[in-house]
Design a protein that fits this description.
Two copies of one chain form a homodimer.
Chain A (H helix, E strand, L loop, with lengths): L7 E4 L16 H16 L7 E4 L1 H9 L8 H16 L12 E6 L10 E5 L5 H9 L2 H19 L5 H14 L9 H18 L9 E2 L2 E2 L5 H15 L3 H9 L9 E6 L10 E6 L11 E6 L3 H6 L5 E2 L10 H18 L3 E8 L2 E9 L4 H13 L5 H6 L3 H8 L2 E2 L9 E2 L1 E4 L2 E7 L2 H9 L4 E5 L7 H6 L2 E4 L7 H9 L3 E3 L4 E4 L4 E4 L5 E3 L3 E5 L4 E4 L4 E2 L5 H13 L3 E5 L3 H9 L5 E4 L10 H9 L3 H25 L4 E5 L12 H13 L4 H17 L11 H6 L1 H20 L5 E6 L5 H22 L8 E5 L2 H5 L1 H4 L5 E4 L1 H9 L3 H7 L1 H6 L13 H17 L4 E4 L7 H7 L6 E4 L4 H16 L4 H4 L1
Parallel strand pairs in A: 16-17, 17-18, 18-19, 26-27, 26-33, 27-28, 28-29, 29-30, 30-31, 31-32, 32-33
Antiparallel strand pairs in A: 1-2, 2-7, 3-4, 3-7, 5-6, 8-9, 8-11, 9-10, 11-12, 13-25, 14-24, 15-19, 16-23, 20-21, 21-22, 23-24
Helix pairs in contact in A: 4-5, 5-7, 6-7, 12-18, 14-34, 18-34, 19-21, 20-21, 21-25, 22-23, 25-26, 33-34
Chain lengths: 915, 915
């Protein structure tokens, strides 16, 4: 079988100084980030040690075949090794001046520290002598050899590292010394023998016939055997558990594989004219344009990272004796890299006897603040265009800038960790019920509400508390969704907490710690960290840099951005953040608190007199609600959704009532009291539903209980007319939830229109256009959008519910019961409640298309959780949606993501075209 | 404005005997069934009295305009009236020989008895004399006049009929007579005056200015006023409550309107050479080709229907003196009608002084048995083709023939009425619990299970009982679905029953009757009737005629028909009925009864030892289950669905447990017992779900609990191999429920395939193809069908669940909470759980298309409730589905419906093309 696939790519120069590099920076999918950028640096004339890179595809073939090498691959590697020796002018294993190589992983997408590396490969019982000779340092030589055996045993052979550490300790005891550094060259030589013995004892010779001799496995002396095993180990590290976990957390595909780069070692530890370091071309924390990094004289790379010796700031390199030239070269490299890559770069370098070598470069990670600053500066410097500047900031990262955070300069111990459900940090006394939270607030105390999970009943407590902590539920649990909507910090699903709400305490599993009511705790909803005691918080704001970049994003974006807000304070906040209107004002929260009794009475006592009274009471308070909202958003659209949840959500829990009745019976309570409870029970039971999500809710309420709808529309219009008479410019829109059929919206539009006309007339206000529209949140509605649009001025896609019904996933149940398993087993690429699924998106696309066909003027928006998710926004941008609506704190994120979506669209790289 | 629409169509002859008919039988949408067929009869030379028909469209315009006549319409009617007088040679209101007319309704689709009719119109204080003169019968004349006033007052003016009945009774008392017939002509003349007085007293002159004189409304003497008001009343009767209800029950559109036919009256009561009657061209009960009908000599039509006098069989007409010629003419008419309409016709006729007049004809209604017989006979007679014969039988009607029925020749009193949820009748002692049903069966007693509603726990009782009666739940409630599946009679939703299961009795609202345990009751699931006591049953079978017609249907149909069956008895039954295989074998029912404890233990005690033991136990019993099924269907495909429902369905109700714990606490039960209960409670709570329909069920179970799937597949394959070794031909297919994504089916296919291969090897059986497929029952699955099909040998559309998620309707909740309201308010044309919705169908169409594109060999079926619904089957026929699967008793219905669908397809009239 002919070997047709190119599996190995050389980089660096040949013996005559000619560049023989075969790859470039665009070949990351083949060569990994490290290999591709080493090739690129060689191409642009930067000093890179010679080497070669084995492709990621070879890794996947090897892995998919059950760790069997593709035919011919090892021969090719052998050829490249021989070529490398020729280019380097040295041979691996040479007892006089041996070539040593590093074997490094490098995936197409950076996974720092996740996979394995083998250094100093090529050392054996002969070449150790050459190394000692070249470095003139026997101690370094033996230390390198014993380290090589140790790391090879660990990384390549999987031998327990403690065996080696133990041997070191035994020798230190024997020698009566405390530190490794006190061991002599001779000690280390003896240790090397001991390590070889441990190796032989722990390797199965039948498993490694290439190492076997006389029935015993020996540490390999043949460098080609070392190389083959090391490459196999790096390939294998693609599938080590921490790499798999990292990929899952970072949404990286498992199908890419890692490249392996074999590169001639250079030594930063050949005396005082040698050094090694890491650097960024700008400050990655602040974005300031300054040299940033550290180096160590006479050291190897791992010493810099290990932090054993104190590093020097990079700015001193130029003035350090023997390193001046290298320092100047490095400054030039910084400049070449930035003008070549047009970005802030992160580099590793080594200076070997005065000569600078570049070992790695990649785009540098940076804080949100730095990202903004660098984007703005580079645009000013002419390095990048304005659209590129907008693309340079990660919208997800902006969250950091919009909420209070733990002060990272202070020390604190993490007590437990949960899901980072709603960003921001909070400090307060632990309380275990909504009522206690309200009481604490009234007493002037800051508190954190700690619950197993929250329910709509907890809303008052959630508002009163600084933040919310739950032991149950996922990122779209009630607590998480509501907290995000309010912009309140929330950590949820902290499984280590065993909460006893009755005792007002929470035990922390695996510790003796019990959090009692009143104990101060701190939570960080951006990280999921929970701390016992108070952590200092830092309060960021909308910085000038952020405003600049968001302004640029606004210039590009074609999607509108609105906010989901239910109260005037949130409305004002969203306006400050740049929301162009309210895309979703939920009204169910307006029925809680002291209003809950009214709605309960409405539900349970259906005598006409009582209902009328309840409706009159509700009309009064609802009118006040809408006055506040419309005033806060004066001149901007406020889309108000009519009552959506099933009415039994406002009633007592039948289970609690069951137990209460049982106790009343046992305790001989009066028969009439029991009878009254039983009657209530029967009423609640009659309303209970097997699957409330699919039951009597949404527009079905407005059909079965039309007077509730009529009251709400009347309240909206009364508020509108009052403001109009005050000379303001209220712009309400009325939204019907959970429509499935054309007939529903046709009937309700008629019902609503009549009330609007009536109130205009009663109030003596000149009628003006009040848009009436629907949520599209059921598959049937999406498919029937052409018919529904005939009766709707706008659609708002309720992507939470649409995801639930399209998948048949109950959000509450699925995120606890099986979505974690699904993500673990790669049955879902992402949680579809966080980022819009492609099939749900298809339904949205169908609905936009069909709706626009029958009603070309229809206005199309998204108001589900996905409206604030950058990945989803990019997908929405090209299916015909006009705007997204999200929680107030996500408005800046949505503006940026929408700008980026538009830029990608202009570049011809948007979602549907990419496919 | 020019009158361009033709609103009135003449029929019959002119004065010279020339046919001047303007319509024909194809104009039912304009002229209604009656008007169109009167025109047709006139066209083919049958004797029809002259008349004209006002179109249905005029009715709708009148109604939509708020009971206002379209411009010019009244003028046109006036012209046609004048023309009619000319053609009849008589004038309305003529005091010497008046023309009287009937004003009759006639909708495009027959709605017998639902709308109003006015006879003898044209009588007034002058023309009464002409009528008396012509009939030489003053008593008949006055009786006709007073009846006309009475009927006009009732139908046209809406005056309370009791006022007139009361006046008659006052006069009878006054005259000292008992019967109406004892009143003399003079009495009736006096009564006529009294009726006119009642009329004046009860009509508001301001509302009817055309009747007002001196501030009093008078009975109209102007025939044109009579005619206008009568036509308006008939138009209005389209929207009377009983007509609306009838249309809803019969799925007839509200938008058609009724035509009004005005026709010259002929009199069957002008002496012994006059007669009137109704007839069918064949026997509508048996289908036999014989004259069938009744007549009365010297009578008017209503006398025949009223049943006051004994009618004569139509066969005697030819031999009755003075009627011989008319009798012969009628026989000829029968023959002309059948050869013209190619169907069995239902007619009304009148003989006036020896001359036969046809007053109406329409296709005759018939029993299922007659429909079969007539179709077969007419095919033999060459009147219709074989495909037309298949089209002539209503599949819904076949249900009558497939289940035991009440013997309608016996008398019985209906105690209460519910929904006809599962056809067939049952007689037995009432029992109020599943356990009592089982006990009764064991004691050799027949019983009927009476429950508020059934749950899966009642299954054993449902199997033991002859039938099921519930006071709650709709046609797709648990009781209804399961009973239909078992072919057991079920009446559900009998609201009049107040069941007290503890007391083992049911009160019947509005009566003193209480049904106690052991009382014999009879239920008829085909009608919804409940009877106290035993009703004799008749047991029909698959008759020769049915077999003939089904055989013909099989020749045409392209859809396969399979059955949904979970046990060998049902499997055998479905095979007898012609099922080609099992399309859905549910396995959850196999986990009930004594197996429930095993699955409970599996769920609650997850120690590895216990789980293994439970799985081993389950494997044993499941293997037996599948041995039975595969043996019964030897050589035919049996699609077995892996476990589908959420596991908590097998556990105790948390509410009952809550109450139990409360009582234990109050009664001082030992702490450890309470603790054990609390632990159980916590386990159940941890598994409970807010929306179980959208929770951890279906294939999600097989992913989270793979060992359950593996056990089931192992059982299927063990049974298969055992049968194979016995020389049989088992043909299992394995179906994965509730798939949403490609990844799920890819993973599970892999899991299942491994078990299949393992068992073949263990059992030493040569491997053969075991198809693995999926349910498509989620919108996402339908959209992703192209990807899913890569891993599926077949799709089976679970239309129940697909309807639930597409609509966002929980079947259990929606059918109780709002679907009735939706049907009432015309927000749904039909219950989408009974007949497939067009948007759900679109998803099926998409899935068939996409699935076949990526897997051209994929086999596509439907196994939801809709698979047995004729209307749905006709829709499925053209979206690419290969077969339907339904409950055993519906297999013949599905065969016929599938045959009809294919015939409609061949005629180019199938669903998608019709649109």
């Amino acid at each position: 079988m002919t070997e047709e696939v190119k599996r190995v790519y050389a980089f660096g120069k040949d013996a005559d100084g000619n560049n023989v590099t075969e790859g470039n920076t665009n070949m990351k999918p083949q060569l990994g980030g490290k290999g591709a950028n080493l090739a690129e640096m060689a191409n642009i004339g930067l000093p890179v040690p010679p080497g070669f890179t084995i492709t990621c595809q070879t890794c996947m073939e090897f892995s998919n075949a059950g760790n069997v090498w593709p035919e011919g691959a090892l021969d090719t590697i052998h050829q490249y090794r021989l070529d490398l020796e020729k280019r380097a002018g040295k041979q691996i294993g040479d007892p006089d001046d041996p070539l040593l190589v590093s074997v490094r992983s490098g995936a197409p997408i950076s996974m720092p520290g996740m996979m394995d590396t083998v250094l100093n490969l090529g050392l054996n019982d002969q070449s150790i002598n050459g190394l000692i000779k070249q470095t003139n340092n026997p101690r370094f030589g033996w230390d390198s050899y014993r380290r090589f055996i140790q790391i090879f045993s660990d990384v390549v052979m999987g031998i327990d590292g403690d065996l080696f550490e133990n041997a070191i300790n035994v020798m230190k005891n024997d020698r009566g010394v405390k530190e490794d550094t006190e061991l002599t060259a001779e000690d280390l030589q003896e240790l090397t023998d001991e390590f070889k013995r441990i190796f032989s004892e722990n390797v199965d010779p039948e498993k490694y016939p290439e190492l076997a001799q006389d029935g015993v496995a020996h540490f390999p002396q043949d460098p080609m055997v070392q190389l083959k095993l090391a490459i196999e180990a790096v390939f294998g590290s693609w599938n080590n558990p921490r790499a798999i976990l990292y990929r899952k957390q970072n949404k990286i595909s498992d199908d890419m594989g890692t490249a392996v780069t074999v590169m001639a070692m250079v030594f930063g530890n050949k005396g005082d004219t040698s050094a090694t370091g890491v650097a960024f071309t700008r400050n990655p924390a602040t974005g300031k344009k300054e040299f940033y990094g550290d180096y160590l004289v006479n050291a190897q790379g791992e010493d810099v990272v290990a932090g054993i010796r104190n590093t020097q700031p990079i700015s001193t390199l130029k003035t350090t004796k023997g390193l001046e030239k290298a320092g100047e070269d490095l400054e030039e490299v910084f400049s070449i890299l930035e003008s070549h890559f047009h970005d802030m770069m992160d580099i590793e370098f080594t200076i070997e006897q005065g000569k600078l070598y570049m070992l790695q470069t990649r785009v540098g990670k940076r804080t949100a603040q730095a990202a903004l600053r660098i984007a703005i500066d580079m645009e000013k410097e002419g390095l990048i265009t304005k659209d590129e500047a907008v693309m340079r900031v990660d919208p997800d990262q902006l969250d950091q800038l919009l909420h209070p955070q733990f002060d990272k300069s202070k020390k604190y111990d993490i007590l437990a960790k949960g899901l980072n459900a709603s960003p921001g940090a909070a400090v307060g006394e632990a309380v275990f019920s909504s009522a206690d939270a309200v009481a604490a607030k009234e007493a002037g105390k800051k508190c954190v509400l700690v619950r197993w999970e929250t329910t709509p009943d907890d809303l008052a407590g959630m508002i009163a508390a600084e933040g919310v902590l739950t032991s149950h539920g996922g990122k779209t649990s009630h607590a998480a969704v509501i907290a995000r909507g309010m912009g309140a910090p929330c950590v949820c699903g902290v499984e280590a907490l065993k909460i006893d709400a009755d005792k007002k305490e929470a035990k922390v599993t695996g510790t003796d710690i019990v959090i009692h009511e009143g104990d101060t705790i701190s939570i960080d909803g951006s990280t999921g960290n929970v701390v016992l005691g108070a952590v200092d918080l830092v309060m960021p704001g909308l910085s000038d840099d952020l405003n600049t970049v968001l302004g640029w994003a606004d210039e590009f974006r074609t999607l509108g951005v609105r906010a989901n807000a239910d109260n005037p304070a949130d409305a004002q906040r969203s306006r400050d953040f740049g929301a162009e209107g309210i895309g979703l004002c939920r009204t169910e929260h307006m029925f809680l608190g002291d209003r809950k009794q009214i709605i309960q009475s409405y539900i349970l006592d259906d005598s006409e007199d009582n209902r009328k009274k309840c409706l009159a009471d509700l009309l009064k308070v609802q009118t006040e609600d809408f006055l506040g909202m419309l005033k806060a958003m004066d001149g901007r659209r406020v889309i108000i959704r009519l009552l959506d949840p099933p009415l039994h959500e406002f009633l007592e829990s039948p289970r609690a009532l069951d137990v209460e009745i049982a106790h009343m019976e046992d305790n001989g309570a009066p028969a009439d009291e029991i009878a009254a409870k039983r009657k209530l029970m029967a009423q609640i039971d009659a309303m209970s539903e097997a699957n409330p999500m699919l039951g009597l809710r949404g527009c079905r309420l407005g059909i079965v209980y039309p007077d509730l709808n009529i009251m709400q529309v009347r309240a909206i219009m009364t508020a509108t007319c009052q403001l109009k008479k005050q000379g303001l410019d209220p712009q309400p829109g009325i939204m019907v939830p959970l429509v499935a059929t054309e007939a529903e919206i046709a009937m309700l539009r008629d019902q609503i229109s009549k009330v609007i006309a009536d109130v205009f007339e009663e109030q003596g206000v000149e009628p003006f256009d009040i848009p009436i529209g629907t949520m599209i949140e059921l598959p049937r509605a999406a498919l029937a959008a052409g018919d529904i649009a005939k009766h709707a001025d706008f659609f708002s896609f309720g992507t939470n519910d649409l995801t639930q019904t399209t998948f048949g996933f109950s959000r509450d149940d699925a995120e606890a019961a099986f979505i974690p398993t699904y993500l673990d087993k790669h049955l879902l690429p992402v949680n579809p409640f966080a980022t819009i699924d492609d099939r749900v998106l298809e339904l949205i696309h169908i609905a936009c298309k069909r709706g626009s066909e029958t009603n070309p003027n229809i206005h199309l928006g998204v108001c589900g959780e996905h409206g604030g998710d950058p990945d989803s926004i990019k997908k929405f941008n090209n299916v015909g949606v006009h705007y997204v609506s999200c929680s107030p704190y996500r408005v800046p994120i949505a503006r940026l993501a929408a700008g980026q979506a538009a830029i990608q669209h202009n570049r011809g790289k948007d979602y549907f075209r990419d496919k």
